[in-house]
Amino acid sequence: MADNSFGRIFRFTTFGESHGVALGCVVDGTPPRLPLDETYIQGFLDRRKPGASRFVSQRREDDKVQILSGVFEGETTGTPIALMIENTDQRSKDYSNIADQYRPGHADFTYQQKYGIRDYRGGGRSSARETAARVAAGAIAHKILAHYYPDLTIRGAVVQIGTHKVNYDNWNWEAVAKNPFFCPDADAVAVWEAYLDETRKNGSSVGAVLEIVAEGVPAGLGAPIYNKLDAYLAAAMMSINAVKGVEIGAGFASTSIPGTEAGDAMRMDDGGKPIFTSNHAGGVLGGISTGQPIVARFAVKPTSSILTPRPSVNRDGEDIEVSTKGRHDPCVGIRAVPIGEAMMAAVLVDLLMQHLAQCGAVPEL
Amino acid sequence: MADNSFGRIFRFTTFGESHGVALGCVVDGTPPRLPLDETYIQGFLDRRKPGASRFVSQRREDDKVQILSGVFEGETTGTPIALMIENTDQRSKDYSNIADQYRPGHADFTYQQKYGIRDYRGGGRSSARETAARVAAGAIAHKILAHYYPDLTIRGAVVQIGTHKVNYDNWNWEAVAKNPFFCPDADAVAVWEAYLDETRKNGSSVGAVLEIVAEGVPAGLGAPIYNKLDAYLAAAMMSINAVKGVEIGAGFASTSIPGTEAGDAMRMDDGGKPIFTSNHAGGVLGGISTGQPIVARFAVKPTSSILTPRPSVNRDGEDIEVSTKGRHDPCVGIRAVPIGEAMMAAVLVDLLMQHLAQCGAVPEL
Amino acid sequence: MADNSFGRIFRFTTFGESHGVALGCVVDGTPPRLPLDETYIQGFLDRRKPGASRFVSQRREDDKVQILSGVFEGETTGTPIALMIENTDQRSKDYSNIADQYRPGHADFTYQQKYGIRDYRGGGRSSARETAARVAAGAIAHKILAHYYPDLTIRGAVVQIGTHKVNYDNWNWEAVAKNPFFCPDADAVAVWEAYLDETRKNGSSVGAVLEIVAEGVPAGLGAPIYNKLDAYLAAAMMSINAVKGVEIGAGFASTSIPGTEAGDAMRMDDGGKPIFTSNHAGGVLGGISTGQPIVARFAVKPTSSILTPRPSVNRDGEDIEVSTKGRHDPCVGIRAVPIGEAMMAAVLVDLLMQHLAQCGAVPEL
Amino acid sequence: MADNSFGRIFRFTTFGESHGVALGCVVDGTPPRLPLDETYIQGFLDRRKPGASRFVSQRREDDKVQILSGVFEGETTGTPIALMIENTDQRSKDYSNIADQYRPGHADFTYQQKYGIRDYRGGGRSSARETAARVAAGAIAHKILAHYYPDLTIRGAVVQIGTHKVNYDNWNWEAVAKNPFFCPDADAVAVWEAYLDETRKNGSSVGAVLEIVAEGVPAGLGAPIYNKLDAYLAAAMMSINAVKGVEIGAGFASTSIPGTEAGDAMRMDDGGKPIFTSNHAGGVLGGISTGQPIVARFAVKPTSSILTPRPSVNRDGEDIEVSTKGRHDPCVGIRAVPIGEAMMAAVLVDLLMQHLAQCGAVPEL
Fold first, then answer.
1. C262 — alpha (psi -120 to 50), left (phi > 0) or beta?
2. Mean of per-residue pLDDT scores for chain A
């Protein structure tokens, strides 16, 4: 299990290196007769696209997706959907200088140790370019969720950059699309802007914390014991490049909440439906969705490619200094919002299908 | 995929409810000709056993493990090893009062929503008693790791209880076994003791943060993209009852480390071997082990069973108050150390076998 | 993947050796709220039980099944169902003579080559006793099928013993239960009886061909490309001990049917439903069920344990003669009918669940 | 699990329809540092290519394979290898006449029943064109086997066409490449030629039996219980289009061999190595390879596309007559030899890797 597949019933397999011929994925298990075309998927890829502001890498990637199979006359057929993105400018650069160097924070050393060979161009398989394939697959997952639950939403935001957190009282989902940081707190934007300018000027970088929220998810999704919704989300988010931590609901902070408050209390609402009066659980109890919003947060480490030289070694066993030229995002975390949303969608679809399989019907909202 | 199996090549499947006839697991994929007996496995179970101090639940569980298959004349045969622990006192209690109640923080509501039925006795399948099966399976994983890497160690400790953290400067692995809290900081013990006594007196509970460290793991383990070592660990730890967050290395704190320091620098050591001069990565880069200690931390929420009454609802749709009688751990996290170690061992064995399968030989240290 | 699990969504994992402490299985993925008890499962095991006639082995096995988990107050809960059969007389025999011998036709040599160790008592893990666990798991599969399709039937028969075939014109399902051979042709019974008496007198044995037929299966089950219904059935049947061939519908004979007849023609029936006018396909086209009866046939080789001495070698590399004392079935195939039915049921349930997962509803008849 | 992936550790996922944009596969789990290029893979595809004689379809398919990923500077990198074959002439034909018809023997009806939609052009996903992807993946499997066992060979032949069998006494592997039928018996060629000419003239078709033989396979491959070598081969071969039966070694004929001969006897050879004096087992005992040649045979039904009109129905529920125009192979089985070889290779590689994973080293010959 090398293992380049994600999911069990709704499952996608990705392929491709940063500077190879093409990258893409094969999406297996999609229900038949859903409308699907390239324009729809392209919309998701464009949100992830770099070059939208001076805070993300200026590399021109077209990321033009092509559907190779699985769609007939505008509808899915139930057979595997292969999606391909050609790497149009893959031969344009000289990578000989990094061929033998292990860049700090990158996977150069570990790929070399594991495989004894690596495609060093742009990080090869370990490049975050692989996430384009996930976003494409995630677009199909979103489509499936919408088929079953038209009102279900999955939205993400950046809630912390470096040491600067948003003020949750200012949270406004509308704000997210109106700034280059996916920031839900309009007041934080100027601070982050100055902070990132300063960071880049220093030849450094910073990390970020992202929050992905799924609303309108019915109670009942998640398959204990080893396919719990929260465990599955943890794997999904941690598999994204540069992620170092994942938490659900109150997460690490829940250790400090007194037990008398930590368990979310319940009451019958006016419509005679049981509701929770808080959501420390982040929408998951015992690995199964509660019907409340599912809240996952993950931490992205600072961009590893920076201008400042750092000590490292090369394949010949010599001490060297490494600095990465070219324009890089001072905070790669910013671009991870659509990726986190894609992984949330993929997890929910797969668990929805697992539930259908075992329990015979999709749960009602 | 209901899915009660963990692992791909080294895979264990657990079964059993808190108050059913028996619980246990079937461990598949164990190499042949390893010495194995019940005494060895029992040693691991005993570390997890409650009743060792007044800070953990006083329920008398014998947790006596039996090997049903897969071992012949004291050695593994390569066939599945079934392990069973009988629930000796399963009929001793009246559970009728909780049969229809949804206890806050527990999985009562979600199991009922998902399955339309639940074994409510002691939490049924959602009880932490399931983790006894993992610890037993983990004992076999430890055995396999020792076969390939005699010096590899996996050790865990509690690093925070409620708001009280250990002082990492005082870290001493020897201390861990000498207090009832798996605490590596001898100075913290008295503080935690007083804090927990107070917590219990208040009818409340607190959470904890645990750290699991694997040393002597060779570089090269982990299978990108969707079976990355860190993603796999995240799923493993998050699948433990009551866990709400997982982080690797610097984890969430890495977002605030400047990029100039975040990527661990490398140098050649005196023996001509490449080493890292820090370990913010927690031993994982690009989803593959670096050869440094693998460091995973996870947060356990406060015990959900407390004496203080809390608002909830019952199956008849009535508002009720729920309080849990009987003696419960004021901090369930304490008992999770051997469980976290077991999951770390299971993940490493599985990835070691995957590496062997694809790359043809175990990596050298 | 050692791999002792069968199925993907409805999945059972078996364990146990012929003369170990116990054998059994863990059945995962069962829908909740189905009535289930030990008596029901025992009924299936009893059909497989030896000792019913002088044509099957006289070993007294009680094969008393116990449910260890997954059932609460007489209903399945959706959690794993562990089933155990204790080996009551496991220490009664001296196996030292076969400890070092490789019995012709048995797996002694290959287990030794693969694992370097084997539990030689009664064949250990390679014994057909493992199939008791399948039959128990299959009983649950039958229950699930009946839940979705009350009129679906799965029935098996022996259609050939040695060189003696049944006359299909005499086929009568009622006859199957009325003779010790699961023979659907009452006229063949006396012939088979004489033939087997003769065979045993000669210290020899013979093989058999079995046919398993599932009726009332809706069109639409089977998941191309690599989980086709017929491919899945082939694996299922071939995994049964001593099976050497599997065919679907016309099978090997279909090579000799002219193309003008081989493809089953279709017509609209009086009720306006499309029907097939023949069933050379055995109910499967393109890996998907057609709605016709699913017909699988498999060949079981002659019993390998016979009285006549045969040339072999031992672990010390010496030429020896091996003969197997004790009473053995002259034709093990006879006992495989309930096993083939169990595997058919397991395959259909798993594919039904897969269909539900992807396509959203069970197909109508 | 829709399930378009084959294999567990060495795993390929295929995609594509007969007349879509492209077809191909993603091959996961390949060991790193094996030399690989398009020319090597193309060689395997060319053996499968139609148009080589008047006995196989004259459709011009270029089947030009492209490597999209996973190979760097002529060597595999351990990351997924995506292979693509563009369908160059996919828009050239009018398929409106078959859009609503269910062709006898084809999967038109079942795909429609399962998915409610189908890409009818050339059979869409159910077309045997999918097997080009398997042959490409199999080429990589062959490469891996050669890496571990340079002398291992996998060869296939057609042993029966319609009612005409080869004479095994005339078997000559050299003959196979010298006639358009992959026939190992030079004397049978003229007979088959006349027979197939006659068949086509009659607007009919016939089936075939193929035999695939792997020599030089070490004892020890195969993972009991549910991943037995023979069970795995059965699934692999039965998943090939139009296959209706699979047998191993003596197969169905083994039912008629007396038990005194059926179990292959053993003796020590002159070199002190245990050998078998016959191979009724076809190289597999207890699901594990014995070290003898592995012999699998499978039956392919007659070509379903024939000129002679046959009764069928259409989507509107009307009785119709269907005949398939254009030139079609009178015996599709002939072209299945390279496909059977590819599946044999894929199974052996996957089981070799599984063995390595569990048992720590590849078995010696």
1. alpha
2. 94
Q: How far apart are CA C129 and CA C329, in angstroms?
A: 13
Name the 3-class secondary structure at A122. helix
ipTM: 0.96
* pTM confidence score: 0.97
CA angle C343, C347, C349 (to 5 degrees): 115
Q: Strand pairing partners for A313? A: A319
- pLDDT for A177-216, tens place per residue? 999 999 999 999 999 999 999 999 999 999 999 999 999 9
Q: Which pLDDT score is estimated for A1?
A: 47
Both tokens of residue A191? 């601070």
Buried (b) or exposed (e) across D255-270, using 16+ Cβ within 10 A? bbbbbbbbbbbbebee
CA distance B39 to B65: 9
Distance CA C88, CA C92 (A): 9
CA angle B133, B137, B143 (to 5 degrees): 150
- Check if A39 contacts B (Cβ < 8 Å): no
Residue A208 forms contact with B (CB below 8 Å): yes
DSSP letters, D148-167, are: H-TT-EEEEEEEEETTEE--
Q: Is C354 on the interface with B (CB under 8 A)?
A: no
How many whole angstroms separate alpha carbon A115 and alpha carbon B227? Answer: 15
Nearest chain B residue to A333 by CA distance is: B255
Distance (Å, whole) CA B359 – CA D353 = 9
**CB of D55 within 8 A of CB of D329?**
yes
Backbone phi and psi for residue C240, each to the nearest 5 degrees, phi listed first: -75, 140
**Nearest residue to B337 via CA among B180, B225, B114:** B180
Q: How far apart are CA C280 and CA D299, in angstroms?
A: 13
Which parts of chain A sit beneath pLDDT 70?
A: 1-2, 49-61, 89-94
Per the CB < 8 A criterion, the answer to whether A44 and A37 are in contact is: no
CA dihedral A270, A275, A279, A281 (to 10 degrees): 180
Substitution target in A38, A65, A66, A72 with the highest count of D β-carbons within 10 Å is: A72
- Interface B–D counts its CB contacts (< 8 A) at 42
CA distance B286 to D298: 44
* Torsion angle of the four alpha carbons A274, A276, A281, A287, in this order, in degrees rounded to the nearest 10: 0
Q: Compute φ and ψ for A171, nearest 5 degrees.
A: -55, 130
Nearest CA in chain D to A26: D15
C125 has a chain B CB within 8 A of its CB:
yes
Alpha-carbon span C185 to C163, nearest angstrom: 15
Under 8 Å between Cβ of C79 and B2:
yes
Q: A301 by DSSP, 3-state: which?
A: coil
H or E stretch at A347:
helix A337-359
pLDDT tens by residue, chain D, 365 residues: 459 999 999 999 999 999 999 999 999 999 999 999 999 999 999 987 655 566 666 555 678 999 999 999 999 999 999 999 999 865 556 677 789 999 999 999 999 999 999 999 999 999 999 999 999 999 999 999 999 999 999 999 999 999 999 999 999 999 999 999 999 999 999 999 999 999 999 999 999 999 999 999 999 999 999 999 999 999 999 999 999 999 999 999 999 999 999 999 999 999 999 999 999 999 999 999 999 999 999 999 999 999 999 999 999 999 999 998 777 789 999 999 999 999 999 999 999 999 999 999 999 98
Collapsing DSSP to helix, strand or coil, B113 comes out as helix
- Listed by number, the residues of chain A in 147-176 with a beta carbon closer than 8 Å to a beta carbon of chain B are 160-163
- Residue by residue, DSSP assigns C192-240 as HHHHHHHHHHTT----EEEEEEEESPPTT--BTTTB-HHHHHHHHHHTS
